[in-house]
Each structure stands twice: as C-alpha cells, then as structure tokens.
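Side project, low priority. Logging it here so it doesn't get lost.
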Amino acid sequence: MYLALIEDGTYLDFANHVPFRGPDGLMELGVLNEEGRISGRAQSAVRQLSPADFHRIVEAGLGELDDLLPRIGETAPYEFAEEQAPFQFEQERERIIQLTSRPVRDRVFRRIVLSAYDERCAVTGLKLINGGGRAEVEAAHIRPVEHNGPDTVRNGIALSGTVHWMFDRGLISLSDDLDIMVSRQVNDPDRLNGLINPTRRALAPERAALRPHPHFLAWHRENCFTQ
C-alpha cells in the first residue's frame, strides 16, 4: 500500500486536461487485459506505466492545443527524470536532468501562471491579446530562477512587460496581503501610479492554492525591493 501526499503548489499541472479516453482510445493501454478490454480484476492503486503510455499522456498534457503562443522557441521531446519532492522554497539549479528540459518547463510554467490569472496583469489589470492569440502578459518568477526560485504557480505572477521589468528590478513589490508597494526611487511615480489598478492591490487567482506564497513575497521585498 502506498499513499502520496502532495502539498498544493508543489508541482506544475499539465497545461491540458488528459482524459481517460482520447480520440484514439484509452490513454493508458496498460489497464486493458489480453483481449483488449478494460480488465475486470482489481487494479493496483500504484501501477507502472509503459514507455508508450507515458509518452502518450505527456504529449496530451503538454501539447499546444490553443492559440496562447509561447514567447520561447520549440524544444526537443520531453524527458522526465525527477521524483515528487516536498514543497520547495528553494530549488537548486545545478542538476543536468530536470523534470523537463528548461525550455519546455518555462513554457508550461508560463501557460499555467497565465491561466491562473486569466491572462491578466496582476498590477495593471489589463488583459491584452493580439490578433495572433498571444497574450501580452508574462509569467514572472517572484523569487528568480537564478536565486533558486522554484517553478511553482505560487512562485509566479502574471505581469505585463513593463511591470515585469520594474518588478525584477525592485521598483515595485507586494505585501503579504498583495498591496502594491512602489519604491521611492521610481523617477516618474505619477505616471507609474496611473498604471496601477484602482484597488492598489494585485489581482489574484480565485483559488487560494494558486496565489503568491508569502514566503516568496517576503524574499522579494527583502532581496529585490528598494525602499
């Protein structure tokens, strides 16, 4: 008997829902018996996936099914080689093999974060989509990758390009309650304040499990934000 306890925000969901049955039949053929029917005997709660089933599920979960275009190039086939780990506030980046290659993981991180924020900038409140279906908003790490920030939704926030630039350079930050903080070093505060949505608080996902984690917000205030 095995029990897996996965804390909210410690993993990246597939970008697409993977159904039990796909267009070509069952996604996991391992549940079939020798005659090609779904086995009537009890299935193990934990069972091994064949390589073919594994890649079929991964392709369905990470494939591009919509018009939300990535801002990075295509990548090689997916390679998974990482076990489930406890919630990480820091993520070492020296590993050669990761959950996926860096470009794929960047792309999935962007899609998951933008989906959580409805493709809307958390600071300005703007939702801009161009004629090709690309969202103007970007997925920003609160604690950056180069400082061991993990690729989790709770370490991400959707920001427009200009706001993302200011956030990375510590000109704006967020309180634990998501109040928007503006540095005194901003050279044009009046125009910046005009960009901020009227609530003066960052717009957050409806689900609490997707909102920025206070630990990462505190790290940003202490290490990036300039008073």
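Brief comment: The helical segments are 51-62, 102-116, 161-168, 189-195, 214-223.
Revisit when time allows.
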